[in-house]
Amino acid sequence: MPLSPSLAASRSRSDAGWLFAVSFRPHFIGASALAAAAVPLWTWIFLTGVSEVAGMPATAWHAHEMVFGFLPAVMAGYLVSSTPNWSGRLPASGWPLAALFALWLAGRIVPLVSPAAIAVATDAGFPLAVAAVLLREARVKAPRQSRHGLMLFPVLAAAAVAHRLLAADPQAAAMLARVGVAVAVLLISAVGGRLVPSLTRNALAGRGAERVPEPYGRYDVLVLAAIFPALAAWAVAPDHPASAVLMGAGALLQAARLARWRGWLVRQADVAALHAGYAWVVIGTALAALAADPLGSVPPDAALHAFTAGAIGCMTMAVMARLGATRGTGARASARLGTAALALVNAAAGARVAAPLVDGAFVELLGTASVLWACAWGLFVAAQLGPRFRRRPRSIS
After folding, report:
1. Residue 359: Cβ-neighbour burial (10 angstroms; 0-12, 13-18, 19+)
2. ω into residue 238 within 30 of 0, thus cis?
3. What is the mean pLDDT of the chain?
4. Does the predicted TM-score (pTM) go above 0.85?
5. Which positions ≥6 away from 284 have C-beta within 8 Å?
6. Beta partners for 53?
7. Do residues 59 and 124 lie in contact, with contact meaning Cβ atoms separated by under 8 Å?
8. Are 274 and 195 in contact (CB under 8 A)?
C-alpha cells in the first residue's frame, strides 16, 4: 500500500536526519557558518596581499561569496520554509532538501578547485534549483511571495554567472555586486516594511501601549516607489549627481518610515533587532547620497558596508532568529546566544562602516570588525545547533 504524502515526507525527514528535518535549518546554518568563516578569511587575504582566490581577484571573490553565496542561502531558507503559507503543501525537507543544500555547498567549494566552466555552472545551479522549487509550488497556487521568488532567483543566477565571468574587470564586477546588494536592500524595504511594524504592533499591544505603528499603507508604497530608482541609480552610477539626489530623498523617506514604527518603545530584543537592521538601511542610503557628486564627503566604501555588513547582516540575522532558527524545545540558552550575536553583528557593522571614515585607523577597525563579525556569526551558529545537542530530561519510570 503506497504511503500518504505526509507519511512519506515524515519518513524522508527521519532518514535524512536532524539537519534536513526543517526547511530553513540547513540554509540558515550554512549561511551563518559561511559568514563566520569568509569574512575573517577575507581580512587575512587582504592584509597579506593574496591577489586571487578561486580564479577571481580576491576582492571580487569576497563580494561574490557574500552577495551570491550568503544572501541566496538566507533568501532560500526563508522562502522555502514559507511554502505552507502559500500552497498548503508541506515544506521541503528530507532528501530533497539535502540535495538543494548540496547544490549551495557545491557553489562554495567547487570553484576553489575546478575550471572556470564548472565554477560558472555551480554558481547558477542553486538559485535555479530554488526557482524550480518555487515554480512547483506556484503551479498549485500562485501567491505573491512565490512570484517574487520566481523572479528573484533567476536574476541572482544570471548576476552570479556574470559576476564570475567579468570578475577581471573591476568596474563591471563592482557594479554587478552593487546590483545584488541593491536587490537585497529593496527586498528588506519591501518585506521589512510589513514585518517590522506588524511585529512591533503586536509587541506594543501586548504591553497595553496606546499608540502603535500604522499598518502598511500609502506611505509605504511611496517609499518603495522612491527607493527603487534610487537603488538602481546607485548600483549603476554611485557617484553620479542623480544618485545623490535620489538616495538623499530616499534616506529622508526611509528615516520617517522607521520613526513611524516607534521602535524606541520596544522591549523585546528580537523585535528591537529588526528596527536596528532597518536603521542600517537609512544609514546606508544617507551615506550613499553623501558619497556621490557633488558632495563626495564620505568614501563609497562606507555606504556599501552600511548596506552589506549593516542592513543585510543585521536584518538577515534578526529575521532568521525571529523565524525560529534559535527557537525550539529548551532553547532558552540558544535565545540568549542569539541576542548576544545580534548585539555583536551591529557592533561589527559599526566598526566596518567607521573604518574608511576614521583617518589612520582603517586596518585596526577592519580587524576589529572582522573579529566581532566572526564572533557574532559563530555564536549564531552555536545558537542554532544548541537544541540539537542539549540533553533531554530523562523520563521517570
Report:
1. exposed
2. no
3. 87
4. yes
5. 185, 303, 304, 306, 307, 310, 311
6. 56
7. no
8. yes
